[in-house]
């Protein structure tokens, strides 16, 4: 039977020891990733059976474009919700990722921005297309975890049994066929076809073997969106059938600089876009069936998720932490019954 190589990492509030633990973890996981194609699994110890987290994406601009204001409001909401961790949906550092592990942009766009006591929790991140335009492996480096113990990034991995972090940038044909004047760091990705097929195979196995009540897949790129980038056709054709076949409940992404909730009309799969961490695109929206499109906000903000065994509550906030949209799985189940 297929078994995952699992690293049992128990995070505590002792952040001095956490830095060393995560440094060891990162070294081990990166070495294991080179030796096996299986997704690595992390275990985040919780103080209760419920789970609370924030989601933010497309943020790293040294505080500009209201990034600092959003960080301030995230700190307030995180304190109220007593969050367990934060998820970043990618494009962590603009415009072209990090130059290396010593790039000051790491501190200037991350450590020095998200300073609220309530945000001193683990950050689980994925890479976006802008991150691949720099030294992509730098964001995976244990050096960053030593600098700031909150930081954790791998290309693809599993958190607990619910969260499946997927590297979506290599799926996009245009980054290979028409990169324009950009240079992408494809180390560890080539040959591309093998990389994608292996990732899809491992994700399929992981989802099928998961016994979690809720299955949440996190990637950078949109699958369905009324925003600037719209649907990512490569993900629609390759990733979406796999998510539907395995009864995934949520696909969480960034890439479009907006806040968005699209509810499937033919399944329970919900598409949640949290890409408003800094620069937003005002008025950049395409028409979408209003029955499916529960929220489209072309401004800055972030999202929270509160998860229990019986339900998931999703809330979107704007740059002032005003509530834009609330949604709960129990409401959805009631409406479809």
Provide structural commentary.
The protein has helices at residues 15-35, 67-81, 105-111, 142-147, 174-177, 192-209, 233-238, 240-245, 329-336; strands spanning 6-7, 40-42, 51-56, 85-88, 122-125, 151-153, 157-159, 163-165, 216-218, 250-253, 259-263, 270-274, 293-297, 301-307, 312-318, 323-328. With 337 residues, it is of the alpha/beta class. The longest helix has 21 residues, at 15-35. The termini are far apart.
Topology:
Blueprint: E1 6-7, H1 15-35, E2 40-42, E3 51-56, H2 67-81, E4 85-88, H3 105-111, E5 122-125, H4 142-147, E6 151-153, E7 157-159, E8 163-165, H5 174-177, H6 192-209, E9 216-218, H7 233-238, H8 240-245, E10 250-253, E11 259-263, E12 270-274, E13 293-297, E14 301-307, E15 312-318, E16 323-328, H9 329-336
Parallel strand pairs: 1-2, 2-7, 3-4, 4-5, 5-6, 8-9, 9-10, 10-12
Antiparallel strand pairs: 3-14, 7-8, 11-12, 11-13, 14-15, 15-16
| Helix content estimate | 25-40%
* Total DSSP helices: 9
Tell me the major beta sheet.
9 strands, mixed
N-to-C SSE string, H for helix and E for strand: EHEEHEHEHEEEHHEHHEEEEEEEH
State Rg.
18 Å
The geometry reads as globular
- pLDDT < 50 stretches: 1-13, 15-20, 26-37
Mean pLDDT: 90
Strand proportion = 15-25%
Helices and strands: which structural class? alpha/beta
Q: Could you give the distance between the termini? A: 37 Å
Strands ordered across the widest β-sheet: 1-2-7-8-9-10-12-11-13
């Amino acid at each position: 039977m297929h078994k995952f190589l699992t690293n049992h990492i128990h995070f505590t509030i002792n952040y001095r020891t956490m830095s060393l633990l995560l440094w060891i973890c990162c070294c081990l996981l990166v070495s294991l990733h080179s030796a096996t194609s299986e997704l690595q699994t992390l275990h985040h110890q919780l103080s209760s059976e419920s789970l609370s987290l924030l989601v933010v994406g497309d943020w790293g601009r040294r505080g500009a474009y209201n990034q600092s204001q959003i960080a301030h409001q995230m700190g307030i909401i995180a304190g109220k919700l007593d969050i367990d961790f934060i998820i970043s949906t990618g494009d962590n550092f603009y415009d072209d990722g990090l130059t290396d592990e010593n790039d000051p942009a790491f501190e200037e766009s991350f450590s020095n921005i998200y300073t609220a006591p309530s945000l001193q929790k683990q950050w689980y991140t994925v890479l976006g297309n802008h991150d691949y335009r720099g030294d992509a492996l730098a964001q995976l480096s244990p050096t960053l975890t030593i600098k700031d113990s909150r930081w954790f990034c791998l290309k693809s991995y599993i958190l607990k049994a619910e969260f499946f972090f997927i590297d979506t940038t290599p799926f996009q044909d245009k980054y290979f066929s028409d990169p324009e004047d950009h240079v992408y760091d494809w180390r560890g990705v080539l040959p591309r076809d093998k990389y994608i097929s292996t990732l899809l195979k491992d994700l399929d196995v992981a989802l099928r073997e998961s016994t979690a009540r809720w299955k949440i897949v996190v990637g950078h790129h949109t699958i369905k969106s009324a925003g600037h980038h719209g649907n990512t056709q490569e993900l629609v054709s390759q990733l979406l059938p796999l998510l539907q076949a395995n009864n995934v409940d949520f696909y969480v992404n960034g890439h479009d600089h907006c806040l968005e909730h699209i509810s499937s009309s033919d399944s329970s799969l919900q598409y949640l876009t949290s890409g408003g961490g800094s620069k937003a695109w005002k008025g950049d929206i395409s028409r979408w069936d209003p029955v499916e499109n529960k929220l489209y906000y072309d401004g800055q903000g972030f999202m929270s998720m509160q998860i229990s065994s019986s339900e998931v509550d999703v809330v979107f906030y704007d740059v002032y932490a005003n509530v834009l949209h609330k949604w709960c799985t129990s409401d959805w189940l009631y409406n479809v019954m």
